[in-house]
Amino acid sequence: MLIRIKIIFFIYMICLLPFSNIALGQSGVVVSFDTASIDLDNHFDILRDTNANLSFEQMRSQELYFKPFTHEKLYFTGEKNVYWARFSITNNFRNDEEFILGFNDTWDKVAFYAHVDDSFVCEVTGRATSFYERTLPYQFSGVTLLLKTKSRQTFYCRFEFNGDYNVPDSFFDTAVPRKSFIHEQEKDRYIQGIFLGIVIIMSCYNLFIFFSLKDKNYLYYVLMLLGMGMIFMANFNYSFEYLWPRHPQWDIFLDNVPLLGAFEGFWLLVFFQSFLKTRENLPVWHKIMNVVNALSILTLPVGFFHILPHAVTLSNILGILIFTIGLVIGIISYRRKYKPARFFLLGTVFSARGTILFLLQAMFHFIPFDIKQYPMEFGYTIDMIFFSFAIADRINILKKENMLAQKKIMEHGIGKETSPEQARIFVAADLYADLGQKISAAKQSLAELEQELTFTDDQQKLKFEKVIGIVNESLEELQTISQNAMSATISEAQPDNLGAE
User: Fold this and answer.
1) Are 391 and 207 in contact (CB under 8 A)?
2) Cα–Cα distance between 312 and 318 in angstroms, integer?
3) For residue 329, what is the enclosing H or E element?
């Protein structure tokens, strides 16, 4: 008799075993009046759809096979991969409450099922979903989580990922109350909008100066700013929301191929090399930067052909290395009394701090300091101010050196004891300082006049352009004559060669 009882009890426990998973996973989350956020970590069950073909109704018939998620490694093949998730929430609020539930942005498609009026309603999101298809009009993957008062609700999600490259490692982000979410979104967009506006203004300003002074450092700086701005927009998905909302595959491409990171890193190093003249002043570091630049460019085929996973992470690590190099060469140049390095070092300190914190947050969701709000925006704003000072200061230094050199020649004068070489140098300096400025002013006036005039036919426009061409040729010829006559020190300080290495 005792043996029969033991056998019956054993069979009974085996029958209850599948339901134990449901009891554990469906313990759920309890929301009360002091709940500021909902963390679903370890409070949901998952089911792997091995054939990736289960409908919602078919999934409901297989709920016994759900098991609690315990942060085990997810399994992905090179084809379509589907996981189902299930979680329960009990709302102890006196009123209905709305939360915004976010998902890991690596999932291609996410379908969220909530029970409303005796049926399940589906909301869709995910990185492969166009902006206009998403039920929540924001640039990240998320849905509205409506919690009925004094009730327990069960929700389902279908997660889909295509491929085996840069695979997801989690399902949910923290859910926050809708009011708090909207407040944070408005604050973020306000601050980030100001930052992007500053980037655009500074880019246009420095580009205008480049066309005026022909100093290539301004062009390198503008390209660097554009790359940084595009990285910022891509990271916060503003490029997807405003530039290509109907083409999410372009955003997926940028997630896998570090195109913008390589562009930014390339022009940043070129700017460092040109501004500090590392070819002459720091030849060893110049070669090191060339190697780092080559590695940065190599991340493009690595990401495009899926040679290594996480090519973007590799690009981010190179970005940290690039800014570290910028700090080192700035300190070395400053200690060697290279005057233009003063503002350069200050700007690099702030931009390096902001970018390194930004990249650490992007790679590891970790910032090792108390100041966690807007590190990149703050750092690059200060950087843009100091770098603009640095370039202007460098030009002023070269102009002062030019004026000093011309003053020394003029002090000697042209007398009986003046050699023919000294006479040519004096005439060339005086010629370029006086006549060169007048021709440059005439050139600028003609360019402005061209914008104001309305030509009646193409023949008039061609004649006007021919006049401008003659002025340009005259200026170039004058510069050539002066440079051939003057010493190498003076010729290097001419305005049209301020950016020469």
Assistant:
1) no
2) 10
3) helix 311-335
Q: How far is CA 248 from CA 100, 128, 316, 374, in A?
A: 22, 5, 22, 26
DSSP H or E stretch at residue 89: strand 80-91
Q: Is the pLDDT of residue 54 over 90?
A: yes
For residue 117, the model assigns a pLDDT of 80
Closest C-alpha to 221, from 343, 104, 96, 102: 343
**DSSP symbol at 367:** -
- For residues 93 and 146, the answer to whether their CB atoms sit within 8 Å is no
Closest CA to 47 of 89, 87, 82: 82
**Cα 271 off chain centre by:** 18
> What is the distance between the alpha carbons of residues 96 and 68, in angstroms, rounded to a whole number?
28
Give the strand pairing for 151-162 and 176-177. Answer: unpaired
Residue-level pLDDT at 425: 59
Among 367, 363, 275, 382, which residue's Cα sits nearest to residue 318? 363
Q: Judging by beta carbons within 10 Å of its beta carbon (0-12, 13-18, 19+), is residue 5 exposed, middle or buried? A: exposed
> Would you place residue 164 in the very low, low, confident or very high pLDDT band (cuts 50, 70, 90)?
low
DSSP assigned state of 136: S
Burial classification of residue 402, based on how many CB atoms lie within 10 Å of its CB (0-12 exposed, 13-18 middle, 19 or more buried): buried
- Of 430 and 75, the structure prediction assigns the larger pLDDT to 75
Which contiguous run of DSSP H or E holds residue 124? strand 119-125
Report the relative pairing of strands 29-31 and 80-91 from DSSP bridges. parallel
Q: Are the beta carbons of 323 and 355 closer than 8 angstroms?
A: yes
Section 175-180 average pLDDT: 89
Q: pLDDT tens-digit profile of 418-430?
A: 455 555 555 666 6
Q: Which residues contact 439 (CB under 8 A, 6 or more apart)?
A: 471, 474, 475, 478
Nearest 5°: the CA angle 243, 134, 41 is: 115
**Residue that the structure tokens 């019956």 belong to:** 8
